[in-house]
Design a protein that fits this description.
By secondary structure, this protein is an alpha+beta fold. The chain contains 11 helices and 11 strands. The two termini are 42 Å apart.
């Protein structure tokens, strides 16, 4: 389990991060393979040169030096020295600096041509040569570690041969690692920049999709990015346009229905004047008043659901506190608990109506209302608590449906029209938040409203 969590933390969560990570890991693997093949090829080539050419030259120089008079050996040394084989003459072998036995054994197999002459294999001193009798030739293979092969001659002198081995020198390894890291760093920066640039339209697409649930009238998304994303963006814009047109058509249809129904209700109200029975006349007028109220509430709900009120920056704490103060001044047991100031971006009129509905419900059905406001980094939490009978858990979703009333009477004064919670949740969800109903500790109902702290 811990390994899975660790892998999830190492693996980026975003598309841009994953694309960049894939590019960087691929580059690392490619660089490692290239460096490995390059180092192996260089090592193989160097050792092949040593085996096929350098050993024969060492053998010929040893024999030639033994046959050359002592006063002519200096000239011979200058003639046989080369950048790939440095030769020096000394009275004795250099100070011992042994190399690994495996390397020495491999080299001695090739040096058998020297016969019974004493042979020593060492590594050069890190600070120059141990002898100063001549100027060494330039090194044509600085990337290879050097090996000193000391061969004793019959007169007691020693010939010191310095050749390149198949192993890379530490300075060369450091330089290669440094430039590899620099190149990977540059490519990584370019990969991150390119990945972010390529995936930026996807992020904008996700933001637009999330915004659609809050504001169907938002401006269309620019068609940018790869061909597939442009096609998806075009389809998304068409869907948003169809939804906006559908809501507009529904609003116009409801306005037309409202006009026709109000006309019919007016005619019915006029006809009630001809009802001789006063009791029946009063009942008919009561039914007409209820129908008018329900019609007005329904149309108001439909209009608010499709409203295009502009967002504005308001003081949410002052808004909630003013609602509580108004009811408290009217003698209602309403209390506010929260900060004195909280800047928030919202549709002020719509949000005020939603909060008013929740507080009114708490006072009407719960006997009191305690409004609590708390602000976090990502969201704002507002709760409305009462001490009423509460709502059973199995009915908490049902009460958000339009015209659903838990109160059994048909009186508008006690039961309302059943649209308060529907309107409140519709408004809160258009702000990108939600409403949840919970049991209040100690008895009662607690309505929890969460709203994201989005920008204008």
């Amino acid at each position: 389990m811990m390994r899975a969590v660790r892998r999830m933390r190492l693996w980026p969560g975003g598309v841009a991060g994953r694309v960049a990570a894939i590019l960087i890991v691929g580059l690392l693997v490619a660089q490692a393979l290239i460096l490995g093949f390059y180092a192996y090829d260089r090592a193989t080539a160097t050792f092949r040169v040593f085996a096929l050419s350098v050993v024969d030259r060492i053998d010929a120089i040893v024999i030639l030096m033994e046959d050359t008079p002592a006063d002519q050996r200096g000239r011979l040394l200058r003639a046989v020295n080369s950048p790939t084989l440095e030769v020096a003459l000394a009275d004795g072998p250099p100070p011992p600096a042994r190399i690994p036995a495996g390397i020495e054994d491999a080299i001695r197999d090739y040096l058998r041509v020297l016969g019974d002459r004493p042979v020593r294999i060492d590594v050069p001193r890190p600070h120059g040569h141990w002898h100063d009798d001549h100027e060494p030739p330039p090194d044509l293979q600085p990337s290879r570690r050097k090996i000193m092969i000391s061969v004793g001659q019959r007169d007691g002198s020693w010939l010191i041969f310095t050749v390149s081995s198949r192993y890379a020198s530490p300075p060369w390894v450091v330089r290669m690692v440094f430039w590899t890291v620099v190149s990977i760093g540059i490519v990584a920066l370019i990969a991150v920049w390119a990945a972010r640039r390529v995936t930026a339209p996807i992020a904008r697409f996700a933001e637009a999709a999330d915004r659609l649930g809050v504001d169907v009238g938002a401006p269309p998304l620019p068609e940018a990015g790869p061909r597939e994303l442009r096609t998806a963006t075009r389809a998304f814009n068409r869907m948003q346009e169809r939804l906006s047109r559908l809501i507009e058509d529904r609003t116009q249809m409801l306005a037309a229905i409202s006009h026709d129904l109000r006309t019919a209700l007016t005619r019915l109200r006029l006809r009630t004047d001809y009802i001789a029975d006063a009791e029946q006349q009063a009942k008919a007028l009561a039914d007409l008043d209820e129908m008018t109220t329900m019609l007005s509430s329904t149309l108001s709900f439909a209009r608010d659901d499709a409203a295009a009120e502009a967002r504005a920056t308001v003081d949410l704490a002052a808004l909630a506190q003013s609602l509580c103060d108004d009811l408290a001044d009217a003698g209602q047991p309403v209390r506010y608990d929260g900060p004195d100031r909280l800047t928030f971006v919202c549709r002020p009129v719509a949000l005020r109506r939603a909060l008013a509905n929740l507080i009114d419900n708490a006072v009407t059905y719960g006997g009191e209302a305690t409004v609590t406001l708390a602000a976090g980094k990502a969201e704002v939490a507002l709760t409305v608590a009462d001490r009423g009978p509460g709502i059973p858990a199995q009915q908490r979703e049902q009460v958000f449906a339009p015209f659903v009333r838990l109160e059994g009477s048909r009186s508008r004064e006690t039961g309302g029209t059943g649209l308060g919670l529907s309107v409140a949740r519709s408004i809160v969800r258009r702000h990108g938040g939600d409403i949840a109903l919970e049991d209040r500790p100690g008895g009662g109902l607690l309505v929890r409203v969460t709203l994201p702290r989005t920008s204008a």
